[in-house]
Design brief:
By secondary structure, the chain is of the alpha/beta class. It is built from five helices and seven strands; from the N terminus they run E-H-E-H-E-E-H-E-E-E-H-H. It has one domain: Maf protein (Alpha-Beta Complex). Strands 1, 2, 3, 4, 5, 6 and 7 form a seven-stranded mixed beta sheet that branches. The N and C termini lie close together (12 Å).
Length: 202
């Protein structure tokens, strides 16, 4: 019998990315889409870690399941570390990815030098059981923000994010490559030894 782990998200893109990361593990991945009656908590934390902890602990206790939660976003130091924890709702509570990107471009329009447009993605992953937090890991991915969108793949701010040492935006890079170099992958790699222990029979 495989080990069950619930991804504390209904975001299709994140579920797809995590399924790719988990594909070699004997773990039955569920998501909050499998629990339609569950209402996630409001993200009231002041950091990615606080939000990930909140999502993981609340879901683990309510569902009585092992849960993996993550919180991630884009940080641009030159504009007060925005959009940061508000990345998904930078242009408003129900903003689209396009609206968020337009607001970011507007907020950075006065920044013309490459070093001023430095940015990084940050991800915090938390694994919790019904008994509490079991493991926390973080990963970052550094780059610069382009002055216009490039590419049509990816999601969020990917079409504006130029990864250091690459000449393509995250929306132009092949998905398998992106999944090897992303902030989410780096955090996942740090937490992987713990996950591998979970799937081992006791």
């Amino acid at each position: 019998m495989s080990f069950e782990l619930v991804l504390a998200t209904t975001n299709f893109h994140k579920i797809r990315e995590f399924r790719s990361l988990f594909k070699k593990l004997s773990i039955d991945l569920l998501s909050l889409s499998d629990f339609p009656n569950y209402a996630p908590p409001e993200e009231t934390g002041s950091s990615f870690e606080e939000n990930a902890l909140l999502k993981a602990l609340t879901a683990a206790k309510a569902l009585n399941q092992w849960v993996l939660a993550e919180d991630s976003g884009l940080v641009v130091p030159a504009i007060n570390n925005a959009p940061g924890i508000y990345s998904a709702r930078y242009a408003g509570e129900n903003a689209t990815d396009l609206e968020n990107r337009k607001k970011l471009l507007s907020a950075m329009s006065h920044l013309t030098k490459e070093d001023e447009r430095y940015a990084f993605y940050e991800c915090c992953i938390v694994i919790a059981s019904p008994d509490g937090v079991q493991k926390v890991a973080k990963g970052t991915c550094e780059g610069t923000i382009l002055s216009e969108e490039k590419g049509s793949a990816g999601f969020g701010y990917d079409s504006l994010f130029l990864k250091h040492d690459y000449r393509k935006s995250f929306a132009e890079i092949d998905e398998t490559i992106k999944n090897r170099i992303s902030h989410r992958r780096k955090a996942f790699d740090k937490i992987l030894p713990f996950i591998e222990q979970l799937q081992m029979p006791t």
